[in-house]
Structures are given as structure tokens and as C-alpha cells.
Amino acid sequence: MNKDTEIDMKEVELNELDPEKQPMTGDGQAAGGEKNGSVKLKVPEDEVTFTGLSKEELMKVAGTPGWVRTRWVLLVLFWLGWVGMLAGAIVIIVQAPPCKPIPKMNWWNEGPLYQISDLEAFSEGLKGVEAKLDEINKLKVKGLVLGPLHTVQEDQPNTLNLQQIDPTQGNQDALVAVLEKAHKKGISVVLDLTPNYRGASPWFTAGDVDDVMDKVKAAAEHWLNLGVDGIRVSDLTVATNSLDWSKLREAVQGNRTDNTKSRALMGVVEGVSPAEVSQLINTTGVDLVLSDLLSSKKEGKGRIMAMDALQSQQRSLGWGLGAAQQDQLSKQAATPALIRLYQLLLFTMPGTPVFTYGDEIGLQAVGAESPKMVWDIEKKPAEGEAVNETAEAQREERVAVKTWFKTLSDLRGKERSLLHGDYYPLSSSTSSLSFLRVWDQSERFLTAVNWGASAETLQFKLAPTEGLELPERAKVKLSTDKAQEVDSVVELDKITLAPGQAVLLHFPYAG
Hints:
The protein is of the alpha/beta class. 36% of the residues lie in helices and 18% in strands. It has 16 helices and 18 strands. It has helices at 3-17, 55-62, 65-95, 119-123, 126-131, 133-137, 172-184, 209-225, 236-239, 245-253, 274-284, 293-296, 300-310, 336-348, 389-414, 416-420, and strands at 113-116, 143-146, 150-153, 156-165, 188-192, 230-233, 264-268, 288-290, 317-319, 352-356, 422-428, 432-438, 444-450, 456-458, 473-479, 489-491, 495-497, 501-507. An eight-stranded parallel beta barrel has the order 1-2-5-6-7-8-9-10, surrounded by four helices. Strand 12 and strand 13 (444-450) form a beta hairpin. Helix 11 (274-284) packs parallel to helix 13 (300-310) and helix 14 (336-348) packs parallel to helix 15 (389-414). The radius of gyration is 40 Å and the shape is globular. The N and C termini lie far apart (109 Å).
């Protein structure tokens, strides 16, 4: 075999053994056609793969002086850093001002009370009350005050039966149904046992008081055993002069322990001074006194002086505007703007706000009879239905008042300064007043209202002895003036309120 033949044979063997080195055709297949070019790769003959150090090799390296020193340095730095962070945390805790302990609160201190004196006008008796509890619950009320429901003829003590429900209001089974459903929703129920509620004097004549008190005590025990959470009586000054007042107290308040829900003894007074209210709270053992001070004192200075005198007893104090007489707030506030103003005032004052049914929508009372409650105010006229513009405007206004009420009720339940905060008067005039509510390190709230017919400029001043300072500015939380936007900034050197305007301002704790 000649030399050329040997070369040709070697090329054939290479082509058969290494097709990847063949030129590629246009479709990517090796062929003997025209060459497109080729890439030559040089692969090292002795390629080494790194597999890391063995255990023995690692142990040898780890034991060298350099690595030992490095590990000790890192360990010392770690523990120094940990100790430093612990020391810093301790310093922060020690230097931080201590939190003020939360005062003991009962259920009647935690939210508004809602009175339904005429169940027939409210919703056709006790069954109607049960059906409307879902709506009542949306108002964030903590207690219902029902009645009086018992049977009695006007000024006739011999007809008094405090343990029998007037058939026009319902029956005992219906009351138990109300109690069970209310309790599931976290709402307590107080029963009004004012004896002669239809007559001239709540306790009949002076000579009847002791005998009637014995009946009230027996009835209280009966209804409390059925699940009622409290008893309300009118004309507390007369009731507490009875020799048997302590027996009623024992029936309602007896066997109180830390593990049981407290039952409330609630009394109503009219036409008495703040000092007399304070004395009743201190001497009679009553849990909650509802007065008519806001109704009887028409001027801002008188109202703020009443708050000054009673604010330290706020957990035993109820405030209302018409509530002491079981009247609607609209009797004192003729316009929707004033209704909103007084709602804001009641929800931010120190004490328990008490409302009568319908106050949440600005229900207007006409004459001496109880006004009939209006429901379904959220229901708009159907498309194509003829619309009475006056009626529709009234419906929209009621919706707006109810939304305002619910906002205030929710705010009071959440903010500690409003729920049980300290009270500081700022300024007052014939038709205006303002005050500050403060609790420890919580958000502060400033209430300013003007129920007069002309604009008022208020200058907020704290007494030097209070140890507090107002900031230069605060933000608007709520305002009856629609042009005053929420969270807009207000200068606190002075503020001008339009006629019938109320505003709630807030600012943070500054240390």
C-alpha cells in the first residue's frame, strides 16, 4: 500500500469515529457537501475537578493559630454586641415614663346607655325591641334602659304591681328573649322600676315611700334573678331618704365579686346642684346618677362649672340632654346642626352619655306623647318612583345624623382619653365652652362647641397649676362644618366657631 492510500484510509476512520468534527449542512446535519465552517476546541488532557478539603485537611487548617484567634475575636464581638443591646433595652425601659394604671371600669362606663321608655312607640312592644337589637347594636351602646313596664294606675299605690308587665308592652317571656339576645351582643339591660311613673310624684306621697320601697326591693330581686343587669329609679333624693334604701342597694349590688358582672343601681335627679349630685354619689352608694344639669344650665359657664365639680366622679356620673326626663334630645336642640353639636358634647364629656331612643337620628318630638320611631331610613326611593323632595331631604339628614352618632360612639369606645381620661376646662362663655381630655401617653382630644346664634372666638388657656401645655397646632378629628376637612391643621392660639358649630381636635402625646 502506497503512502497516499494510507492517508485516505486514516481520513475514512476519522470520519467514522468522530462525526461531530464533520462540517454541518444548512439543516444542521453532518454531510460531505459544501463546508459552512468549523470550530476547533482544545480540551486539556488532564482536567482537575475541585472537590474541597477532606476532614483531615480541614482539621489541620482549623487548628492553626491564625484561625483560632479569628474565632475567638468573632465570639467576643458577638457577646459584646448582645450585652450592649440588652443594656440599651434596659436603659430605655428604665428611662421611659411608667404607664398610668387603667382605672376599674364597669360596663356602664364603657359606652353610651340607650333609653326606651315607650316600647310601643319604639317598635310595638318587647318583641319589637328584640327584633331591633341588631340595629341598636350598630350604635355601639353598652346598655339598654327599658320601661317602666309594670302595671299601675296613676297616683294609686294600691294598684302597683312591679312584678307584672303591662300587657300593652309585652310579657315576661318576651322580656327574657330580649335579655338573652342582648347579652349575646354584649349589651346589658336595666329595668326602670320607678313606681308611680304615670302620676304626679314618682314615689306617690311622702307617707307611701317606705311601703313602696319594700315592693321595689322585692321586684328588683325578681327581675335580677331573670337576668336583668340593673335597676333604675327616678327622684333619687326621695328614694334615698327611705329607711329601706339600703335593702334595695343590697338586693341590686349584693354578692359582688371580681369574677361576676356588676349589676347597676341607677338613679335620676332633677333640679339639683352639682354639689348635691356629688353628695348623692358619695353618700348613697348608687352606681350611676343621671342628672338634668345640662338642660337646667343653659349657659356655657354654668355647664363647664358643673363638669369641673363632678369630673373626678365621672365613673358614677351620667350625662344627658333630656334623658333625665326620658325626652328626646331634639326638645333641647331644634336643628340638626345643634343635635350633632350636643351629641359630640355628650360623647366627649367625662362620664357616661345617656340617650333616649331616636336621638341617633334626630327624631323630633311633637307634643307630650312619645314620638314614633322611624325605621328604614337608609332605604332610598326606587328608580322611577315619585319623590317628595322634603321627605327625601329629611331622610338624608337622618342618615347623616345617625352616621355622626355612630362615629362618635365608636371613637369614645376606642380612645382612652375620651373613655376615662382626665378633664381640663379651657374656656367658656354664655353660648360656648371648650375642654381638654387627656389620658397618660394616649392621644389628646379637645372639644369646642358654640350653640349660640353668632360666631364665637375661643382662646384656649390651661391653668399653670395643671402642669400641661397645649401645642401650637392640632388636627381636626370631627367637625360639624363640612368645609373643615378631617386632619386639617388648626392653630390653637385661638379658634373661631360659626353659630351652631362643634369641633373635636386631637394631637399626640409629646412627652
